[in-house]
């Protein structure tokens, strides 16, 4: 039985896009109320394979997801997937008296552990070695900011900052606002005559981007607080 929320994102896959094994056996039933697709097949059917170990008989197959492009053919909103499934039967016990549970892990759990990306934006000290302990600055000083992403098991990534906006409160939609990075990654603050803001080159790593911004405050804000996001 396979839940149609295969990736754990809330977007349901089509039952017709799911098949079992190398023979691509289709589903035998579908529960529309619970969004569950059922496959019924013999252990030797649908192209499954058998592996014998001293302790068990292991039948291997796979759940295949091959999405058919619908709507606009220029774009895709999901990727194909193959989920391995194994059923283990002990060789030294009566296997007919109890249910055998497959040992597969739901695909959305595997997807989350392998592709979860953690982004961060930190104030760094002057030599970029550690995170700055204090967030208090005087006008005339320089903010050393570092954006990074923890890729985990993901393929290597190059990180870019599309925009960075300063506000007097933590809410991004608060007013006034000042965008010192804008227009798909341009350091617009560095173009002002009284500023030397710039990206730091070369990068320490592809997944890290460092930039220096001259300290500023909002002209009509008495609190002198700035929150980048």
TrEMBL record:
It comes from Bambusicola thoracicus. The keyword Cell cycle does not apply. It is a single-pass type I membrane protein. Pfam families: Zona_pellucida, ZP-N. Signal peptide: none annotated. It comes from the Eukaryota. This is Zona pellucida sperm-binding protein 3. One of its GO terms (cellular component) is egg coat. Belongs to the ZP domain family. ZPC subfamily. One of its GO terms (molecular function) is structural constituent of egg coat.
């Amino acid at each position: 039985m396979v839940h149609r929320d295969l990736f754990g994102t809330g977007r349901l896959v089509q039952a017709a896009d799911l098949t079992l094994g190398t023979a691509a056996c289709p589903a035998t039933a579908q529960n529309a109320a619970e969004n569950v697709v059922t496959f019924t097949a013999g252990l030797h059917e649908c192209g499954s394979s058998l592996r014998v170990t001293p302790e068990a008989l292991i039948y291997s197959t796979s759940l295949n997801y091959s999405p058919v492009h619908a709507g606009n053919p220029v774009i895709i909103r999901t990727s194909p997937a193959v989920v391995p499934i194994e059923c283990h039967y002990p060789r030294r016990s009566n296997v007919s008296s109890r249910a055998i549970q497959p040992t597969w892990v739901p695909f959305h759990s595997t997807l989350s552990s392998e592709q979860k990306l953690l982004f961060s934006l930190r104030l760094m000290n002057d030599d970029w070695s550690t995170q700055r302990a204090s967030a208090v600055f005087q006008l005339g000083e320089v903010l050393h900011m570092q954006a990074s992403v923890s890729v985990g098991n993901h393929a290597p990534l190059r990180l870019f900052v599309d925009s960075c906006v300063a506000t007097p409160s933590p809410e991004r939609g608060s007013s006034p606002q000042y965008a010192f990075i804008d227009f798909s990654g341009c350091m617009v603050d560095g173009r002002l005559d009284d500023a030397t803001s710039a990206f730091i080159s070369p990068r320490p790593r592809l997944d890290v981007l460092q930039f220096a911004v001259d300290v500023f405050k909002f002209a009509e804000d008495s609190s002198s607080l700035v929150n980048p996001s």
